[in-house]
Design a protein that fits this description.
By secondary structure, the protein is mainly beta. The chain has three domains: 103 residues, no CATH class; 68 residues, Lipocalin (Beta Barrel), CATH 2.40.128.270; 107 residues, Lipocalin, CATH 2.40.128.270. It contains three helices and 24 strands.
Length: 317
């Protein structure tokens, strides 16, 4: 659940309360992913992946001179959510569609988000199909892949839906097939693709989240994680970070070819069961001991200077 801080807002004068007939909106962004439904009078529903959904009750106001609106509301207990709404064409960065409203969002924990708003349509409406069809969609997120890596591709994966036929580029080959739309659900039929042979991607250490399956306990043994626990980490912008099992951690790193240097690591200061804290310390020591890395088949294998294995990890699903 979100932990909320204080949000501060200066409201422009000459605004008036929104009427009951004001158009509902769904505001959203793709990078990072979030959405806010302003579809019921006085209600805002906030959804952020990995966090508990939140519902706020509030009111909308509007300044017609500036052609801007504002929605402000509070949960049952906590601080305010504030959504600034401006009548201005907005690109979602994922397709060539243009949306009618630009959104700026102040979350109660002081995070500040930016995105677009669309006017929702009733389930089953033919407009749902028109919102999907006739534009080229670009892949911006995929489980286990860093969005920055996808954004940096010289030719991104794409899809275009038109009159029951879908076609696009999958990263190496072109594909085509059929689809149907029912309310807000798109169902793909059997797809076919070209048969080009493309080079295997180079092994990558960075831009991937790794799920630890084993680590060296510094007693000449690679051990599995405690039952029911999980350790993950990633390398990006010179920093290794994520979850060490109890605390989150950060550590500087550098590479030269398959050579690696990590640490020292710093962690948050949560206290967990003693066996979990021991596992955390041993994992971080193993991470700092790694001096080489290799990736094969989505498996990361890191070794120490004495050639003992330091860490074994899979791409996070």
């Amino acid at each position: 659940m979100l932990r909320f801080g204080v949000a501060v807002l200066c409201v422009v004068a000459s605004s008036s309360a929104a009427t009951a007939g004001e158009s509902p909106l769904v505001c959203f962004s793709n990078e990072p992913s979030w959405s806010i439904e302003l579809t019921a009078p006085g209600i805002a529903r906030v959804t952020i992946p990995g966090e508990e959904p939140m519902t706020f009750r509030g009111v909308a106001t509007r300044n017609e001179v500036l052609r801007e609106g504002l929605w402000r509301g509070s949960p049952a207990a906590g601080r305010d959510l504030v959504v600034f709404l401006r009548d201005a064409a907005c690109s979602d960065g994922m397709s060539d569609a243009k949306h009618p409203v630009t959104a700026r969002v102040s979350l109660p924990d002081l995070r500040f988000l930016a995105g677009c708003c669309r006017v929702p349509v009733p389930a089953g409406s033919a407009t749902n199909a028109r919102r999907v069809e006739g534009v080229s969609w670009r892949l911006t997120s995929l489980s286990g892949k860093d969005p920055k890596v996808l954004a940096a591709l010289s030719r991104p994966a794409t899809a275009r839906f038109e009159a029951g036929r879908v076609s696009g580029f999958s990263g190496c080959n072109n594909f085509m097939g059929s689809y149907t739309i029912d309310a807000d659900r798109v169902t793909l039929g059997q797809l076919a693709g070209t048969m080009m042979a493309c080079p295997e991607p180079a092994p990558r250490l960075e831009g991937v989240t790794w799920d630890v399956t084993g680590f060296n306990n510094n007693r000449h043994a690679v051990v599995s994680l405690l039952a029911g626990t999980r350790i993950t980490f990633s390398f990006a912008d010179g920093t290794a970070s994520d979850n060490a099992g109890c605390n989150t951690f950060r550590a500087p790193f550098s590479t030269q070819g398959n050579g690696l240097k990590v640490g020292p690591a710093i962690t948050t200061r949560m206290s967990c069961a003693e066996e979990l804290m021991v596992q955390e310390r041993e994992f971080l020591a193993a991470l700092e001991s790694a001096v080489t890395w290799s990736v094969e088949g989505g498996v990361l294998d890191m070794h120490r200077a004495d050639e003992e294995r330091a860490i074994f990890a899979n791409v996070k699903k």
